[in-house]
Amino acid sequence: MLRPSGLPEELQTLERTLVMGILNVTPDSFSDGGKFATTQHAIAQGLHLKSTGADIIDVGGESTRPGASRVSVQEELDRVIPVVAGLSERGVTVSVDTMRACVAREATRAGAKIINDVSGGKSDPDMLTTMADLSIPFILMHWRGPSDAMESLATYQDVVGDVCVELGNQVTRAIESGIKHENIVLDPGLGFAKTVEQNWPLLQNLDALQNLGFPLLVGASRKKFLGELLADENGARGVDEREAATTAITTMLALRRVWAVRVHNTQDAFDAVTVVQRLQIL
Ligand code: PMM
């Protein structure tokens, strides 16, 4: 299994897909926004995610849902840094979901071990050189533009081919900026500048993404394309009722030996990846 270097020993040696638990410290994220908007609650929720199977906690202070607008740097730092410090002090491996180089730097000082940039270095011109300097794992997601514009950017000739080419270009820029190959993780960015239907070919053609030669992280948890798939006469399935569908995707990703899944329900994901790991022991 491909994995980035430089993570704690216990994560480097695990022979299964890792579970990244989502901790959005934002008032407006589509699924858990508002519930954990204080430092104390966020730390408690992070510890709960860890105790129910998360290997990594992904802390985010800025919503990236379609249509969301930016928060100020100070607001993002105020939301994220105390939570990163609190969880890191308690031995949790923390990644930080940010598009800002200064947040990445401060978060690393506070103990973060991974930076997860949904823009793959395209939003902040200082991000790639900062990541080269920090020299820690960098999750580089396929991204075409900011949340308030991405719905209009979902035009592809061939979604799988185009995403691979564009991710390849993002990787080239990252390596030219000094980021080490072994620190890069790729992510197809489900739901980001993708229509509901465009997510499926990406999941059906993981080989093409894996052939780029980097560990993969996939974030499908509770996303709209699952709600639309399960729609009935009352409309799309609600966000809180997409768990079994999410777990089905996690199971498939674990069978394909994807490095990590980014999920809300860490217990279900942990159970799924553990079953797959047992099945793969010959
Ligand atoms: N999705 C969201 C936010 N951050 N990061 C990565 N690497 N991949 C994703 O798919 C991704 C992400 C949006 O979902 P959320 O609002 O539940 O966090």
Any descriptors?
282 residues, alpha/beta, TIM Barrel, 8-stranded parallel beta sheet, 11 helices, 40% helix, binds pterin-6-yl-methyl-monophosphate
The count of domains is 1
What pattern of helices and strands is seen along the backbone? HEHEHEHEHEHEHHEHHEH
Strand arrangement across the biggest beta sheet: 6-5-4-3-2-1-8-7
Low-confidence stretches: none
- Give me the CATH superfamily: Dihydropteroate synthase-like
Helix content: 40-55%
How many angstroms does the end-to-end distance come to? 16 Å
| Count of extended strands | 8
Explain what the structure shows:
The chain has helices at 9-12, 39-51, 73-89, 101-109, 127-134, 159-176, 199-204, 206-210, 224-229, 243-255, 266-279; strands at 18-24, 56-60, 94-97, 114-117, 138-141, 184-187, 217-218, 260-263. It has a single domain (9-280), classed as TIM Barrel, CATH 3.20.20. The chain has 282 residues and is of the alpha/beta class. Helices cover 40% and strands 12% of the residues. The model has no long low-confidence stretch (mean pLDDT 94). The chain has an eight-stranded parallel sheet with strand order 6-5-4-3-2-1-8-7. It binds pterin-6-yl-methyl-monophosphate. Pterin-6-yl-methyl-monophosphate is lined by residues 22, 24, 29-31, 60, 64-65, 97, 116, 118, 139, 141, 187, 189-190, 217, 219, 262.
